[in-house]
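Structure, all two chains, one model.
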Amino acid sequence: MEPSNRQIVIEQLPQGKLAAEHFRLRETAVPVPAPGEVLLRNRYVSLDAANRAWMQGATYRAALNAGQVMAGGALAEVVQSRAATLAPGDLVFADTGWQDYAVLPAARVMKVAPVEPLTHLISVYGVAGLTAYFGLLECGKPQPGETVVVSAAAGAVGEIVGQIAKIKGCRTVGVTGGAAKCKLLTSELGYDAAVDYKAGDTMRALRDACPDGIDVYFDNVGGDVLEACLFNMKVHGRIACCGAISQYDSAAPHGPRGVPGLIVTKRLMLRGFLVSDFYPQRDKALADLQGWVKSGQLRVHEDIIEGLENLPRALIGLLAGQNIGKRMVKVV
Amino acid sequence: MEPSNRQIVIEQLPQGKLAAEHFRLRETAVPVPAPGEVLLRNRYVSLDAANRAWMQGATYRAALNAGQVMAGGALAEVVQSRAATLAPGDLVFADTGWQDYAVLPAARVMKVAPVEPLTHLISVYGVAGLTAYFGLLECGKPQPGETVVVSAAAGAVGEIVGQIAKIKGCRTVGVTGGAAKCKLLTSELGYDAAVDYKAGDTMRALRDACPDGIDVYFDNVGGDVLEACLFNMKVHGRIACCGAISQYDSAAPHGPRGVPGLIVTKRLMLRGFLVSDFYPQRDKALADLQGWVKSGQLRVHEDIIEGLENLPRALIGLLAGQNIGKRMVKVV
């Protein structure tokens, strides 16, 4: 029997909350590469809040549409190559989408060297780790002794931001949802303090956790938490704008109060970024991250779910804040 | 008869739109300086949108309250000095408030050298000109050939921003209210194009005026115009956050949509500033401004109203967009 290619297709774009019925599983033939292309076998598919944003409309990539294979980045193995630059057995990171196999032009995949464990190529040495590194250090520019607040603090990016900020000598405050996750932030993930945004009055809780104000806010969520941080920023504070997860799974995103009033009076700097903007500095970042992991200063948390068919619920759960650290689905 | 000191006092803080009944005129004795203080006679009082913001609550200064003399900066002459650093006849810029005379500690006034005309010390060589200069060049960082959008484009700061951007080789688009002011922007103030935010669909009008997108937006207004600009910014665009005049004269300020989503996807930089942050670089700025005025590259527009008693309507009119260039009230 020929192997088949399982694909998870967008059945319908969500208007509000993402749910299982927005996806369906189908089986097709394994695709065949043309000259210049490679056939990839997915190993681990990365789950990212941005996946949901792509379903809202055009972002830094074209909007997704019903009928398409759901988009997503993955660690994959080359099984057949019609390009000189890649050979069977090579490991690559690529936007393969949610499927067992994908054919892509060789120019659109990034070869990566194997590490132990492989999953670190998706977490700390992948987009999550580099996003944390560049966003915090290049956009937030924290100084020793400063107070750094991180939202989605137990998430793939957030947990690394918090730890890098500690390595840089900062006081760190994580914002997350629920008492259990708050406890985890301080007991397991190294934060100095935690704020539960689900407990109400985040503005007040942040003021209590940061009595001298916030120097750097690493924003993964936007919305009400961003607003509460704006009101608690110190003069000349910096906000690294990484994502807006609170706004993705919603039909009516709204902007925070205090924009631009507080930006002016507190002379804040807000800077949006994509990790790809910093790829020229990638080697230095990876060397730092590897050094910190090796020395035990940076502990990596991964949340691995088995089975391609579980991708929809893995993403739905991520948007609900179920994961601790980097969530991925092991395909094979 | 002793000279008296006319003062304009806040009768009541406005909840919504500022009106004449929020002020009243009273006469008191001319105050007497203590050691270390000076008695000032106001010459020209500066009208600024920020005056209204101070009535909303604490900003970079404490909130104003009913019963206080209305705050405001002015060009004043020292009439009596009990400080070694200042002598009668000296010209100073100081936060005197809206009154004929004020007593202030010498340390809280800034001595200025007379120029011809004196009013330029309040417009192009005062807070307005320096705000335009530093906000555009330090926060906006425009490059030759880039598109610069300026809101409140005919106002004291805006008209100078537009002209400096032209001097730096940029294409300039001014946003203002009404067809007559739009015409003035292109015929008198040197803008390449004008957008009327009162004509509706500012988003579309900006897209038409900036078909390649906006590189730098100098924001004096916040609100809907900021939102429309966010949607039209180019990737890696910069926004200099100078003020939020659209939000000051209102009870329910709201934040723009697209924050932080568009900041992330377009990798924007938003930077708030106060002119005082840049005072260490003041001499260089003044030298540049003086050079441009002398060479005729920078034309200064001033809107001078006579009579201290007219300060309330001067501010109310400024908030309604009546002024072209720097508005001030000549006291004596």
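The interface with chain B takes residues 53, 59-60, 219, 222, 226-227, 241-244, 247, 253-274, 277 of chain A (CB under 8 Å).
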